[in-house]
Amino acid sequence: MISALVSFVLRIAIGVIGLLFVLGLLAVALMTVLGLTLWSLLRGRRPNIDMAARFAQARGGFKPGRRANIRPAGEVVDVEVREVPDSAQRLEH
Questions:
Q1: What predicted TM-score, i.e. pTM, was given to this entire model?
Q2: pLDDT tens digits for 15-74?
Q3: How far apart are CA 5 and CA 7, in angstroms?
Q4: Half-sphere exposure of 61 (CA within 13 A, CB side)
Q5: How far apart are CA 68 and CA 64, in angstroms?
């Protein structure tokens, strides 16, 4: 009985310690981001927040600043504009 109670208390304590550790890491990350953003603004530079490009670059995929090899579409042809009647008029005909 006592060992089960001690085991339960230890599980709760380890869970609380783990939760505090994760919350502490999140707080450190938030303070780092806010500090770096403030530092950029104080230096007169705009903060560069483009995480999708950074993750893709870390994977070795898309490189920011490089354009895809896109061919021109060719000649553009205009289309004729026609008026479409209202639905009530179409049902009468």
A1: 0.47
A2: 999 999 999 999 999 999 899 889 888 988 877 767 666 676 666 655 555 555 666 667
A3: 5
A4: 7
A5: 10
